């Protein structure tokens, strides 16, 4: 599940009144949840035994195998992470001394279904692997892309200038552009 979680995208979500980014991975043997408010990162990993125990504690009238509970959790959380929350499911969260508690309320087979994700502060290695490293890589990729686009714009300006010097004129004057000025562009970009 840990390696599959790396391939999951982050999603902007609201749980109760709080905004987060989150990602989760559900499998046949458990689940992993990573959630952040961009100042802290919390994490929970639960195996089949933990899922069964928590289900018995929270849903005393419900007897369902752990695999059904995992499937239900995935079917309730996945739409939220995809930006399509179910109106019959409610989420709330509260900060605790141990971390973050995310409470889910829904139904399963006509009975109330409750689940609490007990998220603790994520280890630094997890934060680095799932948040910091991908952000740095994306930043570097975007910087490279800006350099490539800047180079292409300067080449296009040189090509247009060559056409002008050869006597070519625009058939539509509204298409005329000013030559690209890299320094001015960077200053405006940083100011914005």
UniProtKB/TrEMBL annotation:
Molecular-function GO term, any one: DNA end binding
The entry's keywords: DNA damage, DNA repair, DNA-binding, Nucleus
Keyword DNA damage set for record: yes
Compartments, record wording: Nucleus
Gene3D superfamilies registered for this protein in UniProt: DNA double-strand break repair and VJ recombination XRCC4, N-terminal, Helix hairpin bin
Location of the XLF-like N-terminal domain: 9-120
Protein known as: Non-homologous end-joining factor 1
XLF-like coiled-coil region domain segment(s): 125-171
Transmembrane parts of this sequence: none
InterPro entries: NHEJ_factor, XLF-like_CC, XLF-like_N, XRCC4-like_N_sf
GO biological process, one term: double-strand break repair via nonhomologous end joining
Family matches, as Pfam families: XLF, XLF_CC
Domain of life: Eukaryota
GO CC terms: DNA ligase IV complex
Homology family: Belongs to the XRCC4-XLF family. XLF subfamily.
Primary location class: nucleus
